[in-house]
UniProtKB/TrEMBL annotation:
SUPFAM superfamilies: LexA/Signal peptidase. Its main location: membrane. This is Signal peptidase I. The keyword Lipid biosynthesis does not apply. It is an enzyme of class 3 (hydrolase). Gene3D superfamilies: Umud Fragment, subunit A (2.10.109.10). It catalyses: Cleavage of hydrophobic, N-terminal signal or leader sequences from secreted and periplasmic proteins. Keywords: Hydrolase, Membrane, Protease, Transmembrane, Transmembrane helix. Belongs to the peptidase S26 family.
């Protein structure tokens, strides 16, 4: 280019072109972010959400800092089932979240005696329990929309034995997937209660 013919107008044109490209890039980035949020936020708010395990109340099946994905949509269409592991708000402090297992369903009589759980007088076989606790006793008739929940680590769990039944309005969703640690990645199936059933 002959620099003798390069005018201030040419320089202004180059600067304008550079700003135009920068503006186009900026708006493309904004568009991608907006579209991504439009897709991700509804999923995050209404379908699934992440959850980190805190505490030892669900050991040996769930450990501290394990990363879980919570299914929030299933309970909009299906009834909760015995054996499902759920996340719910602490009725005494709704800013705190608990992870426990559904043991008793609405309308049932739940009793805990010498570490064993009875549903309507029938002992509940719990294959996910590593050892029983004999220091807690409870008995309750569950009303409509009430659930009896317990931690798998019965000697180290604050659950319906102390809190009482949990109303369904406090339940966020069920544990669907474990994403961390890598060696424990899996989805979750219901345990089988042959003598009582899951519903």
């Amino acid at each position: 280019m002959d620099m003798s013919n390069f005018s201030e107008d040419d320089e202004d044109g180059l600067v304008f072109s550079w700003f135009k490209k920068l503006a186009i890039l900026f708006f493309e980035i904004v568009k991608v972010v907006v579209i991504s949020l439009a897709i991700i936020l509804p999923i995050r708010l209404f379908l699934v959400q992440p959850f980190y395990v805190e505490g030892a109340s669900m050991e040996p099946n769930f450990y501290q800092n394990e990363y879980l994905i919570i299914d929030e949509i299933s309970y909009r269409f299906n009834e909760k089932q015995r054996g499902e592991v759920i996340i719910f708000k602490n009725p005494q402090n709704t800013k705190a979240y608990f992870i426990k297992r559904i043991i008793g369903l609405p309308g049932e009589t739940v009793s805990v005696e010498n570490g064993k759980v009875f549903i309507n007088g029938e002992v509940l076989d719990e294959p996910y329990i590593s050892h029983l606790s004999s220091d807690n006793h409870a008995s309750v008739i569950l009303a409509d929309e009430e659930y009896f929940v317990m931690g798998d680590n019965r000697t180290n769990s604050l659950d319906s034995r102390q809190l009482g039944p949990i109303n369904k309005s406090y339940i966020i969703g069920r544990v669907w997937f474990r994403g961390w640690p890598v060696n424990r990645i899996n989805t979750f199936n219901l345990p089988s209660y042959e003598n009582i059933g899951n519903k």
